[in-house]
Amino acid sequence: MSQQQPPVRSTRRSPSRVHRPGALAAAGVLALLPLVTACGGDKGAGGGKAAPSVTAAPAAGVVAPAKVEVIAGLTGCKAKIRIDADELRQGLCRTKKADYLITTFPEEKLKETWLESARVYGGKYLVGTRWVVSAKPALLESFRAKLGGTIRELRGIGPKPTG
After folding, report:
1. Residue 127 above 50 pLDDT?
2. What is the DSSP string of the chain?
3. Among 14, 21, 130, 131, which residue has the least CB neighbours within 10 Å?
């Protein structure tokens, strides 16, 4: 009489289950973009291409890739982490001047994908190596002096805002 062995079950998760929380977090970020960039103001007419500005050396000497908490400290706030996923980490800073988001990425290509998605909403962003700060344009220049990076202006879709 031969004994049959029970089927072997893998303890590994299927790829769709492993990446689902991260995908949901990324979708949440995209859903929040209109809220963050609505106050972004000046939308350029760069035909959809990012318009980089002059990059200054960071006064604080931030070495990329920085953490959300480090960038927040350099901008004068303590970030409340809103998203902590494989694809990105994002913290919200609330100050008397304004609320703003700091997003870090484990890979440069994830940052570029995020920026490409943000292009739909337009606005200005301070962009460094594997990080992005989303704030009112008036704050971005002061943050650039502390953090370095480049201010990128992304053209949104639809008509150019008036006044």
Report:
1. yes
2. -PPPPPPP---SPPHHHHHHHHHHHHHHHHHHHHHHHTT------STTS-EE-PPPPPTT-PPSSPPHHHHHHHHT---EEEEE-SS-EEEEEE-SS-EEEEEE-SSHHHHHHHHHHHTTT-EEEEEETTEEEE--HHHHHHHHHHH--EEEEE--SSSPPP-
3. 14
